[in-house]
Write a structure and sequence with these properties.
The protein is about 75% helix and about 0% strand. With about 280 residues, it is mostly helical. Helix 3 packs parallel to helix 6, helix 7 (about 130-145) runs antiparallel to helix 8 (about 155-175) and helix 12 (about 235-245) packs antiparallel against helix 13.
C-alpha cells in the first residue's frame, strides 16, 4: 500500500484537487453532487499521470543517486504499476462521463497532457515545454471547476491565468530542487536557462500573478478585504531574491517556500470563504 501511495503522490494529488476546488469556490453556492465526480476525476487522472511518469522513468531513474521511484526501489513491480495506471485511466473516464460536454473535452485534454508529458512528446525532457505542460494542466482543472456551472468569462480566465503562472513557478522551483539528478538524465527549463535566470523567471511569474490578485477585486472575483493579506507575498518573494543573490541559499529557499505556500494558500482560501459566505448571508 505504501508503494501505491508513493506512486500516486498523495500529497501532491491533493494539491491538484484543491486547484479544481478553487474554480468551484468561485461559483459557490451554485454547485451540486456533480462536483464530486469532478474532484474524483481530478484525483484519479492526476494519479494516472504520476503513475505513467514513474513507469516511463524506470531506466533513467536507475542512473541517479537519490531514487524516489518505487518501481526502481522494487517496492512494486512495473507490471502492477501499469495495471494500476490502466485502472486509474478507466476510473478517470468513468467520472468524466458525468460532467458537461465542455468539461469532457477539457478532461480528455488533461489525460492527453499527462500521457505526452511522459511518453511520445515526452514534454518533461523538453525545455520550456515542461513548464507549459505543467501550467496548462492545472489551469484546465481550475477552468473545469468553474465552467461546470458557469460559462467562460473574465473571472475564470483571470483565475486560470493566475494558476498558470503560479504552477509554472512551482515547476521551476521543483526543477531547481532536482537539478543535480535531472541534469544527468533530462534537459529541463532550469538546465536550459541556468538557475539564476530560472529564478528571475519565477519572480516574473509571481509578479504578474500578484498584479492579477490586486486587480481581482475590481472584477468582483475576490472581496477587497482579501487585499489586506497582500503583504504575505513577501514570505514567498524574499527567499527567491536572496537565492538570486546567493545560490548557496537554494536549499533553505526550497524548504521555506514548501512550508509557507500551503499556509498562505490556506489563509487566503479561508478568508475568501469567510467573506463570500458573509456576503451571501447578507444578501439573503
Amino acid at each position: 500500500m505504501n508503494a501505491i501511495l508513493e506512486l500516486i503522490r498523495t500529497k501532491t494529488t491533493m494539491k491538484f484537487i484543491l486547484t479544481t476546488m478553487s474554480g468551484l469556490i468561485l461559483v459557490y453556492p451554485n454547485i451540486d453532487f456533480i462536483a464530486i465526480y469532478l474532484l474524483l476525476f481530478t484525483g484519479f487522472s492526476t494519479a494516472f499521470g504520476f503513475l505513467i511518469n514513474d513507469i516511463s522513468d524506470v531506466e533513467v531513474d536507475k542512473l541517479v543517486e537519490k531514487v524516489r521511484n518505487p518501481i526502481v526501489t522494487q517496492k512494486i513491480t512495473r507490471r502492477k504499476s501499469i495495471l494500476l495506471a490502466f485502472f486509474m485511466f478507466l476510473v478517470s473516464l468513468f467520472t468524466l462521463s458525468f460532467l458537461s460536454f465542455y468539461n469532457q473535452l477539457l478532461g480528455l485534454a488533461v489525460i492527453f497532457i499527462y500521457y505526452t508529458y511522459s511518453f511520445g512528446v515526452r514534454a518533461k525532457a523538453k525545455p520550456i515545454l515542461d513548464i507549459i505542460y505543467h501550467s496548462v494542466c492545472l489551469s484546465i482543472f481550475t477552468l473545469m471547476g468553474y465552467t461546470q456551472y458557469k460559462p467562460v468569462d473574465s473571472t475564470c480566465l483571470l483565475l486560470a491565468s493566475t494558476v498558470f503562472l503560479l504552477s509554472g513557478m512551482s515547476q521551476i522551483l521543483q526543477e531547481i530542487r532536482d537539478f543535480e539528478s535531472d541534469k544527468k538524465t533530462i534537459k529541463t527549463t532550469v538546465f536550459f536557462l541556468g538557475k539564476r535566470k530560472a529564478l528571475i523567471l519565477c519572480l516574473a511569474f509571481f509578479t504578474i500573478a500578484f498584479a492579477i490578485f490586486l486587480l481581482a477585486p475590481l472584477y468582483g472575483i475576490i472581496p477587497y478585504e482579501l487585499l489586506l493579506l497582500s503583504p504575505l507575498a513577501y514570505f514567498i518573494v524574499a527567499p527567491i531574491i536572496k537565492t538570486v543573490r546567493d545560490e548557496t541559499y537554494q536549499d533553505k529557499m526550497i524548504e521555506q517556500i514548501s512550508k509557507r505556500s500551503p499556509l498562505i494558500a490556506g489563509v487566503l482560501f479561508s478568508t475568501f470563504l469567510f467573506f463570500k459566505n458573509f456576503d451571501f448571508i447578507f444578501i439573503i
